[in-house]
Amino acid sequence: MARVIIQNVTKVFRGAKGEKISALSGIDLTVEDRECLVLAGPSGSGKSTLLRLLAGLEEPTGGNITMDGKNMEGIPPAEREIAMVFQNPALYPHLTVFENMGLGLKLRKIPKPEIKTRVHEMAELLGIEALLARKPAALSGGERQRVALGRAFVRRPKLLLLDEPLSNLDAPLRAQLRLEFAKLRARLEPTIIYVTHDQFEAMTTGDRVAILKAGVIQHVAEPMTIFDSPANIFVAGFIGSPAMNFFPGALRRNGTGLFFSANNGQPGSALFTTSIPQNVSSRESIICGLRPEHVRVQQDAANAVVQARIARIEPVGSESFVHLAAGACTWLARVPASSALQPGQTVSVAFEMAKAHFFDPATGLSIGSFRDAKLSHE
For the chain, is the Cβ count within 10 Å smaller at the N or the C terminus? Predict the structure, then answer.
């Protein structure tokens, strides 16, 4: 397997009029041997560009990439001991499944008996043994993607690059192939870099996640660390479904206590004011982040901090997403599906401020949360 070090890597493309387009800026990242690192972020964040640099399909504008201490500059893709799976399986239509999976081994002059053994073992792991004699046209989308994964894994590369391999599949197939992928990882223990724009996939697939935005890494950590302690407001909004609610406001002292006062979108008016469960310094400008599961919708006014109107309810099975509005502000709550709420209804709303995150509005950086006790004392 491989240990990959990416140091200060930049990539600049030229536009149609010769203008510079920065795709990656100062990327520093280490992928440990046998680790699965997920690159996550929205479209255009530079995820696939970084993967193409690792594969040798593009050359970096600056910086360097090493694999097991060997600089990859100038080394062609065929000599990098890397396998890559794309969003489109890209199988050879005139070859059978067996031939597609074994082609890379054949080109490396692996003996035929070993090719047969390795392809059949991989097909058994993926549950596609009965398909080995078929051609791609006779396969479903999920079967073709299994073949593409098998073709990559069967080579036993030092580094496996996966570029949104499940994004073209429907939800049940994605869930099934995530299980197949986990089995392959456990059995073969390759080093993997996995690209996705799907935050659920990012949270459930990798040992660590690197969040990118506009070619810059925003946060690298284990999935739950990113969820519990996001580095900035972008990461907080990207990880979590539905996304985190954000309330601009201020932290002010009142006697011996500290209160968060959320803006109402109008000068001099507050949407709500609620106490903070920890003694920290006041701030005249701050952004409070609360996940929808930490917003409590109540029929009565007990412990409520604001009255809001239900603008919309989205049932999603065992729970519902409730869109709330008050003044110029809107936000989202998660409630059990059994809740007897109706659109247009006015309800009382409370917030679990012990679960709140706070961000600097000027930089977007996290000031901290009560979970990680990082709120700054000025």
Answer: C
Angle at 64 between CA 62 and CA 69, to 5 degrees: 175
**Is the CB of residue 119 less than 8 Å from the CB of residue 101?**
yes
Q: For the chain, how are helix, strand and coil distributed in percent, rounded to 5?
A: 25, 35, 35
User: In the numeric block, which tokens belong to residue 19?
Assistant: 């203008």
Which of 152, 130, 160, 4 is closest to 67 using CA atoms? Answer: 4
CATH 2.40.340.10 is right for the domain spanning 245-369: no
What is the Cα–Cα distance from 58 to 24, expressed in whole angstroms?
12
**Integer CA distances (angstroms), 230 to 196, 208, 209, 302, 368, in order:** 18, 13, 12, 31, 9
DSSP 232: B
Residue-range domain boundaries for the chain: 4-238, 245-369
The phi, psi pair for 74, rounded to 5°, reads 80, -5
pLDDT tens over the chain, length 378 residues: 689 999 999 999 988 888 999 999 999 999 999 999 999 999 889 999 999 999 999 999 999 999 999 999 989 988 888 988 888 888 999 999 999 999 989 988 999 999 999 999 889 888 889 999 999 999 988 889 889 988 998 988 889 999 988 877 777 778 888 888 888 888 878 899 999 988 888 998 889 999 999 999 999 999 999 999 999 999 999 998 899 999 999 888 877 678 888 887 665 677 888 887 665 567 888 999 999 999 999 766 666 788 999 999 999 888 999 999 988 889 999 999 878 889 999 999 999 988 999 999 999 999 876 555 444 433
Q: 48-61 burial string, b = 16+ CB within 10 Å, else e?
A: bbbbbbbbbebebb
Residue 290 gets which letter from DSSP? E
Annotation: CATH topology of 4-238: Rossmann fold (3.40.50)
Cα dihedral sign, 151-157-161-166: positive
Q: How far is CA 151 from CA 48, 62, 272, in A?
A: 20, 32, 57
Question: Which long-range contacts link 144-147 to residues 24+ away (Cβ below 8 Å)?
Answer: 144/89, 144/91, 145/89, 145/169, 145/173, 145/177, 146/177, 146/180, 147/89, 147/91, 147/97, 147/100, 147/101
